[in-house]
Write a structure and sequence with these properties.
Length: about 260
C-alpha cells in the first residue's frame, strides 16, 4: 500500500468511526473494492482505530479531565463521578462480547454481504430511536443503569456494519437523554473499548510496534486522527438539531449497492 492509499483508508476510518455509518464495515468494503495489500490488514486497521481513539481524547480532553478528577474527588453534585462510573459500566458488555465472540468477529463477520445486512439493520435501529425520541416531552440525565443499557447497544457494534456511534447514540435516545448529552456520552464511551480492543489485537497478532513508523502506516494514522476530529466536531453540531435521516438513507443505498455489485 502506498502513502496515498493509506491516507484514503485513514480518512475513511476517521470519518466513519464517528459518523453513524460503521467504520469497520467501510474498511471491509474498501478492502474488497480496491484490493489494497497492506501486508497486514488487521494491524493496519488497528492502528487506524487507535488514531480515532486519540482524536476523542484530544477533542473531549476537558470533559475527560473533569470525569477523572471528579471520579476521585466528587464535586458539583458528583456529576463527573456518575459519568465515569456509567462509562465503566457501559464498557463491560462490549468487552465481554468481544472476548466471547472474537473468533467470529474476525472471521465470519468480516464478510461484505453480512456488512450490507448489518447496514440495513442498523438503519432500522436508528430510525426507531429517532421516532422514539421525537415523542419524548421530558428528558433525563445519564446514570449507572442508563450507562449499562447504552453499553449493551455498543456491543451490537462489534458486528461490522452496525456502527458504534449509531448504536450508542440510539441507545442514549432510547434512554431518554437529550441529544447533546447522548452524543457526548456516546463518544466518551467509545474511547475505552476502542483502545482496549486495539491493544488486545496488537498483542494477539504479535506485531512489532516499530511497524507504526512505516511511512504509509504513519500517513494513515495521521489521516485517521485528523478526519476523526473533523467528524466529531461535525456530529456534535449536526445531531443537536437533526435526525439520523441522511445517514439512514446513505446506509441503505450503500447496502443495496454492495449486495448488487460485490
Amino acid at each position: 500500500m502506498n502513502m496515498l492509499q493509506a491516507i484514503v483508508f485513514g480518512a475513511i476510518q476517521g470519518l466513519t468511526e464517528f459518523l453513524p455509518v460503521s467504520s469497520s464495515g467501510h474498511l471491509l468494503i474498501a478492502h474488497e473494492l480496491f484490493d489494497f495489500n497492506t501486508g497486514n490488514d488487521l494491524f493496519f486497521d488497528v492502528m487506524l482505530h487507535l488514531a480515532t481513539a486519540l482524536a476523542v481524547i484530544i477533542y473531549f480532553r476537558k470533559d475527560i479531565w473533569e470525569v477523572v478528577k471528579q471520579f476521585f474527588v466528587p464535586s458539583d453534585g458528583g456529576a463527573g463521578r456518575k459519568w465515569g462510573i456509567a462509562i465503566i459500566l457501559g464498557t463491560i458488555p462490549a468487552g465481554i462480547c468481544g472476548l466471547l465472540f472474537q473468533d467470529q468477529i474476525e472471521t465470519i463477520f468480516r464478510n461484505v454481504k453480512l456488512v450490507a445486512i448489518a447496514l440495513i439493520a442498523g438503519s432500522i435501529l436508528m430510525y426507531t430511536a429517532d421516532l422514539f425520541w421525537r415523542k419524548r416531552q421530558n428528558f433525563e440525565h445519564i446514570n449507572f443503569g442508563k450507562g449499562l443499557i447504552i453499553g449493551c447497544f455498543q456491543a451490537l457494534a462489534l458486528i461490522p456494519g452496525i456502527s458504534r456511534s449509531g448504536s450508542t447514540i440510539s441507545g442514549s435516545l432510547f434512554s431518554k437523554l437529550n441529544r447533546e448529552e447522548a452524543i457526548r456520552f456516546s463518544f466518551l464511551l467509545s474511547t475505552p473499548i476502542i483502545f482496549g480492543s486495539a491493544l488486545k489485537e496488537l498483542l494477539d497478532i504479535h506485531s512489532s510496534f516499530t511497524q507504526v513508523f512505516n511511512t504509509s502506516l504513519t500517513a494513515g494514522f495521521v489521516a485517521s486522527f485528523v478526519f476523526g476530529l473533523v467528524a466529531i466536531h461535525f456530529m456534535m453540531k449536526y445531531l443537536r438539531t437533526h435526525t439520523f435521516s441522511v445517514f439512514i438513507w446513505y446506509r441503505i443505498i450503500l447496502a443495496v449497492l454492495v449486495l448488487i455489485l460485490i
